[in-house]
Amino acid sequence: MITLTSIAMLVALAQPATHLSILPWTGNDLQTTSADAVKYRLEITGPPNAAIHLHTSGVADGWLAAFCTPKLCSPQRIDFAMPRSGQSVVQFELIRESDTAPHQSAATITAADGSSISVPAAYR
User: CA 38, CA 124: separation in Å to the nearest integer?
Assistant: First the structure.
């Protein structure tokens, strides 16, 4: 017999474990970032110690999306272990690389578990 408790458990299991939020970047720029980039604060929450795999899509031709940490900037994707706190922050950038590229680009960031977030259009 199906009960409300079993339905609630199935719904909880079907929910992505990773939660993404995007805000304008307000802190100091990381040394690894581009001066010409439009910068965002990507907040990621998920299970402690989980393997996190993020990638981008929907970036306009002539633009580059990058995930930046204090140690490196990774184009188009990033893989890392979630800290024990279950929270992480990455600087996400959209960079117009070509003079012939459109003057705006948006992006979608997607996690391996299917959770995703739309990044507002950047203008350059």
Answer: 8
CATH of 17-123, one of 2.30.30, 2.40.50, 2.60.40, 3.40.50: 2.60.40
CA distance 41 to 4: 38
Letter for the amino acid at 109? I
Q: Given the DSSP bridges, would you call strands 77-81 and 51-57 parallel, antiparallel or unpaired?
A: antiparallel
What pLDDT sits at residue 11? 46
Point out the residues of the chain with pLDDT beneath 50: 10-14
* Interior/surface letters 22-44, b for 16+ CB within 10 angstroms, e for the rest: beebeeeebeebbeebbbbebeb
CA 5 to chain CA mean position, Å: 33
Number of residues written out for the chain = 124
Q: What is the pLDDT of residue 114?
A: 93
Tell whether pTM > 0.90.
Answer: no
